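Hey L., structure's done. Input below.
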Amino acid sequence: MKGLLGRKIGMTQIFDEGVVVPVTVLQVGPCYVTQKKSAATDGYSAIQVGFEEVKPKRLSKGELQHLRRNQLPPLRHLREFRVKPEELDQYQVGQKLTADVFAPGDRVDVTGTSKGRGFQGGVKRHGFNRQPKTHGASDRERAPGAAGSGTTPGRTYKGHRGPGHMGNERVTVHNLTVVRVDAERDMIVVRGAVPGPRGGLIILREARKQG
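Output:
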């Protein structure tokens, strides 16, 4: 499975035969293959990919030694991508992966961390309806209302939706279309929105559910 790490640059729009298309610009790579895992040694087939060079003092000694063993620069982020056993020979430790791994028209899954919204009420967090503004409910407009049903069961069921912490969760958006690829600047433009703030880390994978 093809995959890259990168950062979200932001959203813009392009014109496709007179139609406005919302797109997200992603800065991907350059990434490095930092480790290969096989079924014989690890029980599954995968490659470990590193992204974003940093000063050596930013990493632990274990991380530095892991990278220096293969003459790789200090890399801030390491992630694994599962690959089929027969595809493992296509990658070599130290190999550089750039945006040209993908081409326009490819379908991809993008994973990121959604924006944190803090503690929010039920209306914003779950889309609950507001209560009447009149008939004595002047101060209950955005309150969630009753959460249980009296004597039976005499409690609120586990998992009941209500106010609470919103956002700052790992989110994956499936089946986005690659619109443009700029290999020279390591940029990929995908159609639609991508989770997370500008500058947030994203994981770009070949779509699992294409169709």
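The radius of gyration is 23 Å. The domain at 30-97 is CATH 3.30.160.810 (Double Stranded RNA Binding Domain).

-- N.
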